Target: Outer membrane beta-barrel domain-containing protein
Amino acid sequence: MRTILSFAVLLSTVAGADPALAQAAPTVPAPGAESSIPPDMAPVAAPQSAQHEMGSSVPDEQPVATPRARPQRVGEDAAEETPASEEAPAPAEAAAPAANPPAADAPLAVADVDTELRTTTPEQQRLVHGAPLYNPNVSVHIVQKKRFADEGKHEFALYPLAVQVNGKFTNHAGSALHYTYHVQENFALQVSGIYNWHSNESRFNLELIDKVREQAQAASSLLLQWGAQAGVEVTPLYGKFAFYDDQLAQFSLIINGGAGFGGTRHLIRPEVANQVEGQTFTVPARFGDAGTRFVGSVGGGFRVQFGDSYAVRLEVRDLVYTARVDRVDGCNLSDFEKLEAARSANQPFANLDLSGGCKFQKFDGVDPDTKKNYREDIILGRDLVAEPSSDVLNNVSFYAGFSILF
Model:
């Protein structure tokens, strides 16, 4: 029995020593440049086995059997992968999930971009009012409020020139003055006035009078001398633009409209040459008052504001006014017939039974400078009211001026 136990202990000792012997076996590399140096032939230490007393029936400790490792043979690659059980554990950083890569169009700071990969210069990346001057990787959309608020402000606008652009039978040129109170940012109340220092019939109509003794109907050639209106103004759109690299200007699209009254007049006699006693005098054109008419307007344009208090205004306005010619200088058809009868009889006009508004003095007397007898104009005035006519005229004019806000 003791012999059998001793044989079992011997087998266990030999089985435990085989792996150690296999691991200690020298590895001979394959022939080549790296095999010129012989491997280190260090002596292999014999494994220490547990000592057992030959007389004991049971060994003190029985070693645990380990799996036999495959010994490396001569000629195998020294860099052969180790068994999975002998691989080193992966570091904790590798186990963590990888961070999401940045988007392709994400903006990059200038300091983070390599100099060789940079597509812009630092000057191009300089921020102006919070936005880069140029960056192909950034799309900037900016919506800002107006730099200068209009709410609660007063505005006086002067238009030195307001010229008619659609004259067929009439020509107008004048000046206008507007006062605007901005109730809200985009809504304002407005009072406007215009005076046409030049209002005359068009060259086309004057040629008709001079060459063929014909002219447009009296209502179609009625002239607007002045106008006064009250209305509103709205600014549905505004923006800004840059000029001279570092200057900003604010512009607004303005739409306005109003209604009021205006004074009209009509041409009685164009400019003529008067010959008296061998002398020739140039007689200026004569106009007759045609009364007050209803006037309405609608228009629009742009206001460009420089700074907080000054602006330039460019507008187009359509002045619409009713035209009816039934009186000239307050005299109707009946008055002109009485005046013509008194002129033929060489009688004074003061004793005539005329309407209350007839200004007969304008058709009486002689001009001391041109020697023109005003009684000759009675027949011309009668022709204007002989066939009463009415029309609605559109006076489209271009306005250019400046304004002050406070």
